[in-house]
Structure formats: structure tokens, C-alpha cells
């Protein structure tokens, strides 16, 4: 195993990362991987991805900008370069996405010195997987409507409640948890914890099945589960403020502590549609010859180039009217882009779009209907796209808040 | 489709380009505020639409624009121009769109680009004039069907000694009543010619089109055996000149559309914050808020694609034509979307002549169709992205 890349110069760093990625192409996964890391299902997938994250971490591609005391490499502004290069190299994604992109930025901002030293290193290496316990049956878009309750008991808190849609919960050692500690105030009654999950008494993790027929997320039940007060993040009653840090990080406003490759091969998406159209029929016409289909594919390729160029423009401040105008569009634009692509893929596949994963005649092993079904996960998760539109309308255009 | 791009990360939009754009913004903001624009072009509908008057424009403002050097933006320094990158020009043209400036600027920039691509002595002479005197110059290259493809040149030429005689009619000539010189395309045998003709030359007749856009004029131009001197022949083999210039012309119009679209967005957003119904500013309602966000995203896509196309053209990338088609398609559709929503979300006041919205709505409609709408460009792109339809 080579030493981590320790190179402060951004250009040098980039070329070294690029070389490392070329020389360390991971072996193919023994099991097919889901489209995004939040859907990882099996222990086989987990082991493979955990090994990959460990390797990237050892090479200095994860935790690049995190202080050395917390297990990182102490650079400035290099994580985004590592992220770009991992995307470019189309290597697998990093499994600990909740940890890297949500827990770490939140702990760095709100954690005590002790908490930072305890929680961040295992998160970077991927040894300790994190999940997010925000959503509940009654608290989705209206996240502050929490019912889960933590009551102080000596140096511990005793937790009761029900979390849903908990991605990666079945592998997680830790959960970033938003819970109620007082029923008096909707927002000021919330507190944030770093909550142990794995092997804890009073904690039950049960898989939920998605519309694809696959598992991928969970519900988590707390029945008199105990959390030491030392795992409380920031003050009692400050949970909403802390949760906002997490959501801001989640919505892509920061580079987090690493991202890995995987989803987001925007230009490749159009190439796949063209390929599909060249091999699919709409009645007696080759799909690639159907003018309506051609127009639809070209619309996708314009959208793809638009996304790519907007990402480029977001770094040229003189060409952006408002600093958050492009960054806050990212989640919305990318998830709808993916959904439209998948929808079009299904349309192009025609009769063959009826064939699902296990069918030997299914184009791309059933990728298109699976991707289409799955795409709704991303237009709903991490703040639904309707909520994203509220945020853009309010924060960027300055329209009145709908709450 | 991974592109071979030599274009820089920042699209080549450096300090000079920022300065030019900001100057343009401040200048137009001072000289052509919306009230003035409305008084200038939309004072009385009966004059423009029924009286047959030529669309008004502010000649004093044009003199100032010439002073600012905008007519020389796309001309080399040897001919007295400023030789600004296309991305820099796009920044200015966006401002032109934002203020819906009626002027022969876009035709003059378009003509300059065509002349520069020709690069002949005759071309250089005209460019020197444009740069030093600001001679407004336009293009007469479109036939009765509305096609400007080289094979569809509107005029025919016959040899006349060392010169030519031109006959026929060019259509959809933009701002014909504002320009002094027209670049015209004609067929001589199987060759495509490009010549410079003064609009007041003997045998040249302008007939005004009745158009809905209030911020320009348009005409058909009839050539009744017009004699062309040899020194006015810009190119005797202009097909490659056209090929090199098309993408730039598309991008100019796309930039104008982006600027006008952004004006419509901001104007509608402001209205949605002020107009109160059901005890709330209407921007509170998501049927108002969300379409405005969608419009913003479409405009942002178009703007990114415009800068991209400019940078690719400036760098001479092989991807430039694709990028230009994408820019014009995206900008046409983005502008159409916000045009539509801006009127609707203003309610009754948006439907009146009194409000300035319709000025932008119509300018956008006109620009959407000019040099091909979204469907046109996507058909071209389909051949580039997917390959031609197979012949069975
Ligand atoms: C694949 C996936 C993974 C997830 N992973 C996690 C996880 O790991 N941890 C976690 O805590 N949560 C997770 N979630 C939950 C996710 O954050 C919520 O589903 C989401 O916030 C929406 O909440 P909801 O499902 O209760 O829908 P609701 O909030 O009930 O929304 C229903 C519909 O109403 C619309 N709506 C609601 N409010 C408004 C409004 N103000 N304006 C306009 N429209 C509105 C919504 O957009 C939606 O269309 C995940 C979800 C998915 C799909």
C-alpha cells in the first residue's frame, strides 16, 4: 500500500490523484451495485464498498481537508479536486455518504474537541458507517414536527420513538439523530445526538421495501434506548440549528469530506440513450430514426451539457448574479435530469421496457425500468423537489416564505 | 460525445469582459430605462401597427453607442476595431436584450463577423468603415421561405464586365431601415457570392414588413438589376464564410434572448412580491413561486450554454457548432417559457399595452424564430449527436 498523497499544490495534487486512480482501479464488484450509495442492500456490497473507501482514505482522497487531529490530511481546498477526479474516473461511490457529507460537517461545526476526535476518524476510513435519523411518519417535509422523545436520566438520555426511511441503517454503527427533548416548543424543543445504533438494546432496525422490490432503507424503533449525554451535539434545545447545518451540507452547498465516483456521469447518460435507441425498435422503425425520439434525446443532451456548463459557471463569480443561485439548483436539476433520462430510456426500449432485472432479454439487465422506478427516491429524499423549489424561490428570488 | 475543448475554465470571461459588460449595463440602465423604452417604441399602437410607420429608434443613443465602440467589437484592430472575444460580446448583447434596445447593433455585429470570416480586401474596407464611422450594416441573406442556408441564397448574379448585376429579392432583412449597407448573398452558377450594397443604391427597393416586434424593423429588399462594382464583391466563394459565421450569429441572438428573459423573470418576481391578493403577496403561492423557479433554471441553463458556445467558438474547438445549436435551442425555449409565465402571472395588467411586458414578449417571439427555433436546432443536433437517419 502506497503512502497517502501529500501535495499542497492543487495542480500537482490533481495529477497525482488522477494517476493514483488510474493505477488503483478497483476490481469489479462481485455483486451488482445499486445506483446510489444510500440504497446499498447486502453485506457483500457493503464489504466491497467499505474496502474501497478504506483504500481511498489511505491514499488521501477522503478527509483531504479535515484536520490531522481528526484523522484527516489537513489540506485546504483539495477535497473538491479529489471529488472531481473520483467522478471523472468513474470509480465506485463511497459507502459512508451520510457520514462524510452530513455527519462530519455537522460535528466539525457543533462538536466538542472530544467528539471530533472520537467520531470523525472512523467515519473517514469507512470503518464506522453512519445513518441519518431525521424523518418520522409524521415528520417529513415538516421536519420539526418530531415525535421521538429523549428524556434525561442521570448522565444518559432515554429515547422512545420511530424513525423511517433510514438509509444504510442496517449497516450503521452511528446515527445522526434529531429528536424532541421538550414538547413545549416546536423548534426550541429539539436536540441533536450522535446516537449508537449497532447492537444497542432498545434499538430495532427493520428493512423497508422500495417500489423497486429491493430493500435499501429501514425503519428504526427506539424503545427505552439509552444515549450518554456525552453524545449530545451542541446544547439541549439547539437541535434545529444543528439540523440546518446537516441539511445545508446534504443539499450540496459544501464539499463534505469526500464523495467518490458513481452517479453523476452526466454526459455518459446521453451516450447510453443513443446506444439504446440504436438497438431498439418502435414498431417497424429503429428508435434512433424516430424524429420524436431523436428530439427527446437531443433535449437530454442539451440538459446534460447545461448541467455541466452550469457547474463550470458556478465557479466564475462574475457570471453568477447570486452566489447561491446555481448551487441551490444542483439537487433539483440533477435528480430531475436523471429521472427524465430514465423515463426516456423506458420509452425508447419500447416493448423491451417491460422486462425487469432478472429477464435475460432485458436491455442492460433491466436498468431502464429499475432506474426509472428508483429515480423517485432522489426527487423525494433530501428535501423533496417541491421543497427545493420553495427554497430557491425564497432564498434566491426573495419571494415570501411559504413555511 | 466528450468534447475536445481548448476553452478555459472561466469561459474566457476575464476582467476586460466584466468591465465591458458592466459599462454596457450602466449605460443602458441610464439611457434606456423601461419608461423611456415604452415611450420610444410603444407610445401609440395605431401608429406602429395600423399607420405603417417604421419602428422608431433613438438615433442619438446610437451615436453614443458608436462612440462607445460597440460597432467595432467584432472587428480586428488592423481595421480599427476592438477585437473583443465572442464571450465578451455576448456579455454586452445580454445587456442589449435586457433593455430591449432597438438599434442596428446586432445586424452590424453579425455583418462584422461575416466580413471578418471573409477577410478579403473588400471586407476589410467595409469593416474599417463600420469601426471608424459606425456605419450600420446588415445582412440580406434570407429567401422567401425564410431559409438562410447557403444553397438558398435569395439573389441571382450575372457577370457584367468585371462587376456583377444582382436581381431578385431578399426577405426577413433585419433592421433594414436602420442600416446603410447590406451584405447580400447571391448565386452565380453554382457559386455563392457575398457583396456589399448600399441601401440607397440605384435599383435597391425596401418594402417594410408588418411585424409584431416593436423593437426592430424588418423588410424585404428587392434588387432591380443592381450593378455591383468589383471592389464591392466580398467573396466569390462564400460557402465557408457562411459556415464559419452561422454559429456566432446564433449565439448573438441567444445572448439577447437570455438578457430579455432575465428582465422578464426579475420584473415578474418583483411584481409577485408586491401584488397582494388573499392578504398575501402572490409570490407566496406555489402556483406562482414554482414556475418562476423553473424559469430561472431554464434561463440559467441557457446562459451557461451561451457562454460555453462562445468559449468554444473563441477557442476554435470542433465542438463549437454543437454548442451553438444547443445555446440557441435552450435560449429560445427558456425565453418562451418566461415570456408565457410573465404575462400570465401579472394578470390583467400584464395583458395591457400599457405595461412593458409585451415589448419583451414580442422581441423574444421574434428572436425565437430568428436563425431557427428550438425544434430547428434540435433537428440539426440530432444528426450530430445520434447520427443521420438511416436510409432503408
Ligand atoms: C430513497 C429515500 C431515502 C431516504 N433516506 C432518509 C434517511 O436516510 N434519513 C432520513 O431521515 N430521511 C430519509 N428520507 C426521507 C426524506 O427526507 C423524506 O421522505 C422527505 O423529506 C419527504 O417527507 P415525506 O416522505 O414525509 O413526504 P411529505 O413531506 O409528506 O410530502 C408529500 C408531498 O407533499 C409535498 N409537500 C410537502 N410539504 C410541501 C410544501 N410546503 N410545499 C409544497 N409541497 C409540499 C412534498 O413535496 C411531497 O410531494 C429518505 C427518503 C427517500 C425517498
Automatic annotation (TrEMBL), chain A:
Single Gene Ontology MF annotation: flavin adenine dinucleotide binding
Domain Acyl-CoA dehydrogenase/oxidase N-terminal residue range list: 11-127
Span of domain Acyl-CoA oxidase/dehydrogenase middle: 131-224
InterPro entries cross-referenced by the UniProt entry: Acyl-CoA_Oxase/DH_mid-dom, Acyl-CoA_Oxase/DH_mid-dom_sf, AcylCo_DH-like_C, AcylCo_DH/oxidase_C, AcylCoA_DH/ox_N, AcylCoA_DH/ox_N_sf, AcylCoA_DH/oxidase_NM_dom_sf, Mycobact_Acyl-CoA_DH
Sorted UniProt keywords: FAD, Flavoprotein, Oxidoreductase
Origin superkingdom: Bacteria
Any one GO cellular component localisation term in the record: plasma membrane
Sequence ranges assigned to domain Acyl-CoA dehydrogenase/oxidase C-terminal in this UniProt record: 237-397
Cofactor: FAD
Family of the protein in this entry: Belongs to the acyl-CoA dehydrogenase family.
UniProt-recorded name of the protein: Alkylation response protein AidB-like acyl-CoA dehydrogenase
From TrEMBL, chain B:
Cofactor: FAD
Name of this protein: Alkylation response protein AidB-like acyl-CoA dehydrogenase
CDD domains (UniProt xref): ACAD
Keywords attached to this entry: FAD, Flavoprotein, Oxidoreductase
Domain Acyl-CoA dehydrogenase/oxidase C-terminal: start-end pairs: 252-382
Pfam families with a match to the protein in the record: Acyl-CoA_dh_1, Acyl-CoA_dh_N
InterPro entries recorded: Acyl-CoA_Oxase/DH_mid-dom_sf, AcylCo_DH-like_C, AcylCo_DH/oxidase_C, AcylCoA_DH/ox_N, AcylCoA_DH/ox_N_sf, AcylCoA_DH/oxidase_NM_dom_sf
Domain annotation Acyl-CoA dehydrogenase/oxidase N-terminal: ranges: 15-123
Domain of life per record: Bacteria
A single MF term (Gene Ontology): flavin adenine dinucleotide binding
Amino acid at each position: 500500500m502506497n503512502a497517502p498523497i501529500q501535495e499542497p499544490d492543487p495542480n500537482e495534487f490533481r495529477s497525482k490523484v488522477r494517476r493514483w486512480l488510474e493505477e488503483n482501479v478497483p476490481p469489479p464488484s462481485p455483486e451488482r451495485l445499486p445506483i446510489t450509495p444510500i440504497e446499498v442492500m447486502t453485506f457483500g456490497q457493503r464489504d466491497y464498498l467499505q474496502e474501497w473507501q478504506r483504500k481511498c482514505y489511505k491514499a488521501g482522497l477522503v478527509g483531504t481537508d479535515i484536520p490531522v487531529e481528526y484523522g484527516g490530511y489537513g489540506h485546504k481546498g483539495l477535497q473538491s479536486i479529489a471529488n472531481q477526479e473520483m467522478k471523472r474516473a468513474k470509480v465506485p461511490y463511497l459507502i459512508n455518504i451520510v457520514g462524510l457529507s452530513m455527519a462530519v460537517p455537522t460535528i466539525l461545526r457543533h462538536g466538542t474537541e472530544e467528539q471530533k476526535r472520537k467520531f470523525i476518524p472512523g467515519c473517514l476510513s469507512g470503518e464506522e458507517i453512519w445513518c441519518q435519523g431525521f424523518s418520522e411518519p409524521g415528520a417529513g417535509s415538516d421536519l420539526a414536527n418530531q415525535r421521538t422523545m429523549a428524556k434525561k436520566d442521570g448522565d444518559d438520555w432515554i429515547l422512545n420513538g420511530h424513525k423511517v426511511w433510514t438509509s444504510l441503517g442496517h449497516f450503521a454503527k452511528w446515527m445522526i439523530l434529531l429528536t424532541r427533548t421538550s414538547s413545549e416548543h416546536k423548534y426550541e424543543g429539539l436536540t441533536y445526538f450522535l446516537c449508537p445504533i449497532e447492537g444497542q438494546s432498545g434499538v430495532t432496525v427493520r428493512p423497508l421495501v422500495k417500489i423497486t422490490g429491493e430493500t435499501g432503507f429501514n425503519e428504526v424503533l427506539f424503545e427505552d434506548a439509552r444515549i450518554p449525554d456525552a453524545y449530545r451535539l451542541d446544547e439541549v434545545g439547539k437541535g434545529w440549528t444543528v439540523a440546518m447545518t446537516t441539511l445545508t451540507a446534504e443539499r450540496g452547498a459544501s464539499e463534505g469530506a469526500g464523495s467518490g465516483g458513481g452517479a453523476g456521469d452526466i454526459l455518459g447518460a446521453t451516450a447510453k440513450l443513443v446506444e439504446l435507441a440504436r438497438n431498439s425498435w418502435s414498431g417497424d422503425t429503429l428508435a434512433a430514426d424516430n424524429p420524436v425520439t431523436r428530439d427527446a434525446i437531443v433535449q437530454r443532451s442539451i440538459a446534460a451539457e447545461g448541467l455541466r456548463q452550469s457547474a463550470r459557471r458556478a465557479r466564475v463569480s462574475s457570471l453568477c448574479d447570486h452566489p447561491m443561485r446555481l448551487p441551490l439548483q444542483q439537487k433539483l436539476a440533477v435528480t430531475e435530469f436523471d429521472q427524465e433520462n430514465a423515463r426516456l430510456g423506458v420509452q425508447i426500449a419500447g416493448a423491451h421496457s417491460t422486462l425487469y432485472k432478472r429477464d435475460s432479454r432485458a436491455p442492460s439487465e433491466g436498468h431502464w425500468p429499475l432506474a426509472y422506478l428508483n429515480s423517485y427516491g432522489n426527487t423525494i429524499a433530501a428535501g423533496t423537489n417541491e421543497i427545493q423549489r420553495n427554497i430557491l424561490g425564497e432564498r434566491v428570488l426573495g419571494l415570501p416564505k411559504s413555511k | 460525445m466528450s468534447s475536445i475543448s481548448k476553452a478555459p475554465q472561466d469561459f474566457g470571461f476575464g476582467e476586460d469582459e466584466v468591465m465591458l459588460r458592466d459599462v454596457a449595463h450602466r449605460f443602458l440602465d441610464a439611457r434606456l430605462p423601461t419608461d423611456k423604452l415604452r415611450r420610444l417604441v410603444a407610445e401609440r399602437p395605431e401608429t406602429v401597427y395600423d399607420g405603417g410607420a417604421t419602428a422608431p429608434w433613438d438615433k442619438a443613443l446610437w451615436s453614443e453607442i458608436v462612440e462607445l465602440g460597440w460597432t467595432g467589437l467584432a472587428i480586428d484592430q488592423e481595421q480599427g476595431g476592438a477585437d473583443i472575444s465572442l464571450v465578451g460580446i455576448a456579455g454586452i448583447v445580454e445587456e442589449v436584450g435586457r433593455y430591449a434596445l432597438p438599434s442596428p447593433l446586432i445586424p452590424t455585429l453579425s455583418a462584422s463577423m461575416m466580413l471578418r470570416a471573409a477577410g478579403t480586401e473588400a471586407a476589410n474596407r467595409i469593416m474599417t468603415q463600420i469601426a471608424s464611422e459606425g456605419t450600420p450594416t446588415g445582412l440580406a441573406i434570407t429567401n422567401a421561405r425564410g431559409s438562410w442556408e447557403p444553397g438558398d441564397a435569395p439573389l441571382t448574379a450575372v457577370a457584367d464586365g468585371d462587376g456583377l448585376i444582382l436581381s431578385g429579392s431578399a426577405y426577413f432583412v433585419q433592421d433594414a431601415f436602420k442600416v446603410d449597407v447590406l451584405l447580400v448573398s447571391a448565386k452565380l452558377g453554382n457559386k455563392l457570392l457575398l457583396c456589399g450594397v448600399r441601401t440607397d443604391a440605384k435599383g435597391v427597393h425596401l418594402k417594410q414588413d408588418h411585424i409584431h416586434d416593436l423593437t426592430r424593423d424588418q423588410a424585404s429588399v428587392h434588387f432591380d438589376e443592381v450593378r455591383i462594382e468589383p471592389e464591392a464583391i466580398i467573396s466569390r466563394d462564400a460557402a465557408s464564410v457562411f459556415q464559419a459565421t452561422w454559429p456566432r450569429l446564433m449565439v448573438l441572438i441567444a445572448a439577447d434572448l437570455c438578457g430579455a428573459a432575465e428582465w422578464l423573470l426579475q420584473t415578474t418576481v418583483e411584481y409577485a412580491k408586491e401584488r397582494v391578493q388573499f392578504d398575501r403577496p402572490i409570490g407566496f403561492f406555489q402556483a406562482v413561486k414554482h414556475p418562476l423557479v423553473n424559469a430561472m433554471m431554464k434561463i440559467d441553463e441557457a446562459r451557461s450554454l451561451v457562454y460555453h458556445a462562445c468559449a468554444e467558438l473563441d477557442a476554435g474547438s470542433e465542438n463549437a457548432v454543437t454548442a451553438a445549436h444547443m445555446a440557441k435551442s435552450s435560449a429560445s425555449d427558456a425565453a418562451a417559457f418566461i415570456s408565457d409565465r410573465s404575462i400570465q402571472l401579472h394578470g390583467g395588467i400584464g395583458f395591457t399595452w400599457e405595461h412593458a411586458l409585451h415589448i419583451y414578449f414580442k422581441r423574444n417571439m421574434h428572436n425565437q424564430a430568428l436563425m431557427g427555433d428550438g425544434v430547428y436546432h434540435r433537428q440539426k443536433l440530432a444528426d450530430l449527436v445520434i447520427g443521420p437517419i438511416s436510409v432503408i
